[in-house]
C-alpha cells in the first residue's frame, strides 16, 4: 500500500510547496483512505485544504473541476457533461478522419473539448462522462480539453452531476452551454472566456486569413452596446449584417496592443434579437466619452472621446521627414533601418493629454495638424526655410495647443510606454475643463 500511495504523497507535498513533511502527509493519507474509507481523490483534496493549499495544484489522478483547469496540464481527470457534441471531418497525415468537438460542462464552468480518437460509445448531448488522462492546451486565448489516445472516457449515470440548464440540454442543439458569464463590452478584459453579451453590429466585413491547413474566412468589424465599442472576429459565417442586434454566448476575449477584442467561433451560440433590444445604430455609433484612468485599467478602447488639457508637446512634433521605405521619422536625414535617405515631408503632433485622472500620448496626423495650424505642409516647409529651422512649426503648435482644453477622438492602445491615442478628430474647446470634471464626478458618485 505504501508504494501505491507514494506518488500521491509526492503530489500533495508538491501542491503544498514542501510546507508539510512527506512522512506526515503519508500518515494522514493512509488514515483517510484506510481508516475513514474516503476516496483517494477526496482525501488528497482534504489534506491540501487542511494545510492551506489549493487543490487545483494537484495533478496526479485527481478529479478537477473545469474552473480549476489551466493550459498545459497532463493527466487531467474530469466528471463532466456533454453540453454540445459535434462531428468534424479533417485531413490528417493518415488521411481523412472524423473527430468530435464541442463543450464540456460541470457546476463550476464550461470548456471546449476535442476528441481526437473515437469514443467507446455513441456520445449524446446531456451525457455525463468520466474523463481520465486528458490534457489541456490554450486555443485562441482559452483553455481547451483534448481527449487523446491515452484518454479513457466512460459514461456515468445522469444524476452523477446536477442537471445542466434547460437551454443547454433541450430544444435545438446549441454549440455552447448556458452559464456563460454575462458582460457589458466595457467590462470585458483580456483572457476572459465563455462570455455572454448583447451588442449591435456597427460594421462587418469578410476577409481571409492564413491558418493551419490553408485559408480561412473570418468576419470582423465593430460592435457596440450602451457602454462601449469593441472590435470583433467571428470565425464562422453567422450571417451578420450592419445594424443587427445579436446575443452571443461562448465568446472569448483577446487583445491587440492592449485593446480587448471579442472573438467567437463555431462553438458559440449566436442569436439575432429584436431591433428594439438596444439603442439605434446612430446612437451607438457615437464615440463614448471616457476617463483616461478607466482606459488605462481596461487596456485601451475603440473609438473613444477624451477631454483634457494638452500639457506638453513631445519631441518629433511639427514638420518632420519620413523614410520613403518604412515611413519612420528621420533624425538628421537618417532612418534607423534604411540609413541616410531623402525623406518625404509630413506634419504631426505628439502631445501629452491629461484629464485629471491620468494622461496619454495623443498623436495627430497630417490632415488634423494642417487644420489646427490652418496651413498646408507646403506652407510649413516654406516657413521653415525662411526661418532656417523646422522648430518654428513646433513653436507655432506649442503656442496654439499647450495648456489648452482639447477634445480628442480615436482608438486608444497600450504598451510598455503607456496609453496612446491615434486621433481621428480633435478640437480646441472653449470650456472650463475643471468644472466639467466636477460635473462628471457628481454624475458618477453623486454630489459631495
Description:
The protein has 448 residues and is an alpha+beta fold. The strands form four sheets. The chain has a five-stranded mixed β-barrel with strand order 2-3-4-6-5. Strands 9-10-11-13-12 form a five-stranded mixed barrel. The protein has a five-stranded mixed barrel with strand order 15-19-20-22-21. The protein is 22% helix and 40% strand. The protein has four domains: 56 residues; 107 residues, Nucleic acid-binding proteins (OB fold (Dihydrolipoamide Acetyltransferase, E2P), Beta Barrel); 104 residues, Nucleic acid-binding proteins (OB fold (Dihydrolipoamide Acetyltransferase, E2P)); 154 residues, OB fold (Dihydrolipoamide Acetyltransferase, E2P). It is built from ten helices and 22 strands.
Q: How much helical structure, as a percent, in the residues? A: 10-25%
Mean pLDDT: 84
CATH topology of the largest domain: OB fold (Dihydrolipoamide Acetyltransferase, E2P)
Count of extended strands = 22
The CATH superfamily of the largest domain is known as: Nucleic acid-binding proteins
User: How does the overall form come out from the CA principal axes?
Assistant: elongated
**Strand content range:** 35-45%
Strand order of the largest sheet: 2-3-4-6-5
How many domains, as an integer? 4
Structural class: alpha+beta
Tell me what the CATH architecture of the largest domain is.
Answer: Beta Barrel
Low-confidence stretches: 164-178
Radius of gyration: 29 Å
Number of alpha- plus pi-helical segments:
10
Top-tier CATH class of the largest domain: Mainly Beta
The description of the largest β-sheet is:
5 strands, mixed, barrel
